[in-house]
Amino acid sequence: MLLTLSPDSPEPLYEQIRRGITALIAQGHLRDGQRLDSVRQVAAEFGINPATVKKAYDQLVRDGLVETAGRSGSVVRQGTRTAQQREQLRADLQELIQRARAQGFTTSEIAKLIKEL
């Protein structure tokens, strides 16, 4: 997997894994139906506790990006947005926009950044 972790980062490892896999999906490096490396494989690759990887995978399931079927493994699932996911995205964006506005960014600056991304 094209994932890199920074053990010295203040961001927890499980969150780095979750963000990294989310980015790989968003960039098209991981596609719908593609199997993720097993929890044990990822843990061994990075020399970390399997529970850390499992926590990241569980969050990806909650985010609606991955399905996990026991011993069958975890598979990328895209394109099945739910109303709950839409509302969560709306809440997340609202929080980010409020923080940006509090930092002095204008609506047009925020919109420009969104278009760039």
Q: What would you say this structure looks like, in words?
A:
There is one protein chain. This protein is mainly alpha-helical. It folds into two domains: 13-76, Winged helix-like DNA-binding domain superfamily/Winged helix DNA-binding domain (Arc Repressor Mutant, subunit A); 83-116, no CATH class. Helices cover 56% and strands 5% of the residues. The protein is built from five helices and two strands. Strands 1-2 form a two-stranded antiparallel sheet. Strand 1 (66-68) and strand 2 form a beta hairpin. Helix 1 (13-26) crosses helix 3 (50-62) and helix 2 crosses helix 3 (50-62). The radius of gyration is 16 Å and the shape is globular. The model has no long low-confidence stretch (mean pLDDT 91). Keywords: DNA-binding, Transcription, Transcription regulation. InterPro entries: Tscrpt_reg_HTH_GntR, WH-like_DNA-bd_sf, WH_DNA-bd_sf. Residues 11-79 form the HTH gntR-type domain. One of its GO terms (molecular function) is DNA binding. This is GntR family transcriptional regulator.
Shape: globular
CATH topology assignment of the largest domain:
Arc Repressor Mutant, subunit A
CATH architecture classification name of the largest domain: Orthogonal Bundle
Unreliable stretches covering 5 or more consecutive residues: none
Total domain modules? 2
Query: How many E-type strands?
Result: 2
Number of helices: 5
Structural class of the helix and strand makeup? mainly alpha
Domain HTH gntR-type: 11-79
GO molecular function, one term: DNA-binding transcription factor activity
Keywords: DNA-binding, Transcription, Transcription regulation
Organism: Corynebacterium lizhenjunii
